[in-house]
Design goal:
about 50 residues; alpha+beta; globular; three-stranded antiparallel sheet; binds zinc ion
Length: about 50
Amino acid sequence: MDCPRKHEPLKEIELEGVLVDICPTCGGVWFDPNEMKISMKSMRTPGGNYWI
Ligand SMILES: [Zn+2]
């Protein structure tokens, strides 16, 4: 998966038991669709992206 903003490869890490893709360039954090369900409540942003 590439960053939707910079189109650079994301780095996959585990965060609090959930696998997320982080972008070292812009600092964005993206969840896979099935992972979104878990974290949607606490980290939703209007743009649809997920940030720490
Ligand atoms: Zn990025």
